[in-house]
From TrEMBL:
Catalytic activity: [protein]-L-glutamate 5-O-methyl ester + H2O = L-glutamyl-[protein] + methanol + H(+); L-glutaminyl-[protein] + H2O = L-glutamyl-[protein] + NH4(+)
Domain CheB-type methylesterase as annotated: residue spans: 168-358
Keywords, alphabetical: Chemotaxis, Cytoplasm, Hydrolase, Phosphoprotein
Species assigned in the record: Azonexus hydrophilus
The protein's name in its UniProt record: Protein-glutamate methylesterase/protein-glutamine glutaminase
Location of the Response regulatory domain: 5-122
Matches recorded under Pfam families: CheB_methylest, Response_reg
GO MF assignments: phosphorelay response regulator activity; protein-glutamate methylesterase activity; protein-glutamine glutaminase activity
UniProt GO cellular component terms: cytoplasm
Compartment(s): Cytoplasm
Gene from which this protein is expressed: cheB
Length: 358
């Protein structure tokens, strides 16, 4: 069995030891080195050639972001950020994902054995996914391209241009799910969406301290208004609703129209929010007026829900393998026949908007 070789970069000796013990406790993973700072990490990368790097956000001297920025320009490789789940750190971690980190995980809590066991499982999953991820290099400091052009497939055009306008009262509603690699994929998708778009409801697997920062970040970049859903908001055109990290998000019909609904029910596919929960509600409440989109992500969350959407008459789209960071969720949806159209990320917004009546 070929093991995934991991280099740990963290200024805390305790954290380096804890992460090493967890990773070495998994049969298909091994820690080949540990560095307390960026300078040491740089030398160890040259000599050890690891498959995956775990990287702390806050380090003495050169911090994690600056090191990551340089790494992705000079020697792109899979990186999993390890950071505390705080409001301040969430902004930094989102920036790290923008710079090219594959995924992130919080610092482990040492207050319960069960918590540590679950953490070790999640860490191992993220490292495995990172090993197989498509890592995008950065040719210049402010590049935001999600996938190098050479890795993109040539999209099959269905029309010459995306419509400049559309009928905001068309009744269509877009439902989107993503996981690993999804923060940047969602950003790229929304950058291609006009201000007068149909309502868009999004589930991205993230902790609750991150979703509000993610929504604010998108709101400052995209033409539609982007908010973190609070529950019971009226679903309106020109607005994007991000599921909060602590609750499932659904859509519900009331006498006054369609509204968002939050649920603290048990996780589905080990996730809350779950894409399947959102897609199931779309199939039940909106039916053929729904448009489903599934983007890059690890696992299978959203596949069955998208199948039920398609069976209910919805139009469904899946991101293709070549443009995914991790071709997990879209692959599962495609294999069971849930995806009607598969396309590259840089063509997704145009294809989706073309499905909305003008």
């Amino acid at each position: 069995m070929t093991k995934t070789r991991v280099l740990i970069v963290d200024d805390s000796a305790l954290m380096r030891g804890l992460l090493s013990a967890m990773i070495n406790g998994v049969a298909d993973l091994e820690v080949v080195g540990a560095a307390p700072d960026a300078q040491t990490a740089r030398e160890l990368i040259k000599t050890l050639n690891p498959d995956v790097l775990t990287l702390d956000v806050h380090m003495p001297g050169m911090d994690g972001l600056e090191f990551l920025d340089r790494l992705m320009r000079l020697r792109p490789m899979p990186v999993v950020m390890v950071s505390s789940y705080t409001n301040a750190t969430s902004e930094t971690t989102l920036k790290a994902l923008e710079l090219g980190a594959v995924d992130f995980i919080g610092k482990p809590r040492t207050d319960a054995a069960q918590t540590m066991e679950l953490y070790a499982e999640e860490l191992a999953e993220k490292i495995r996914a990172a090993r197989t991820a498509r890592v995008r290099g950065r040719s210049f400091p402010h590049s935001t391209s999600s996938v190098p052009p050479a890795q993109r497939t040539v999209p099959v055009s269905t029309s010459s241009h995306a419509p400049a306008g559309m009928a905001s009262g068309s009744g269509k509603i877009i439902f989107l799910g993503a996981s690993t690699g999804g923060t940047e994929a969602i950003k790229e998708f929304l950058l291609g969406i006009p201000a007068n778009c149909p309502p868009i409801l999004i589930v991205q697997h993230m902790p609750e301290t991150f979703t509000s920062s993610f929504a604010r970040r998108l709101d400052g970049l995209c033409a539609p208004r982007v908010i973190e859903a609070q529950g019971n908001e009226r679903v309106e055109a020109g607005t994007v609703y991000i599921a909060p990290g602590h609750s499932h998000m659904l859509i519900r019909r009331t006498g006054a129209g369609l509204v968002t609904e939050l649920s603290a029910a048990e996780p589905v596919n080990r996730h809350r929010p779950s894409v399947d929960v959102l897609f199931d509600s779309a199939a039940q409440v909106v039916g053929r007026q729904a448009i489903g989109v599934i983007l890059t992500g690890m696992g299978k969350d959203g596949a069955q829900g998208m199948l039920r959407m398609r069976q209910a008459g919805a139009k469904t789209f899946g991101q293709d393998e070549a443009s995914c960071v991790v071709y997990g969720m879209p692959r599962e949806a495609f294999l069971i026949g849930a995806v009607e159209e598969q396309c590259a990320l840089d063509d997704m917004a145009r294809r989706v908007i073309a499905a909305v009546p003008r």
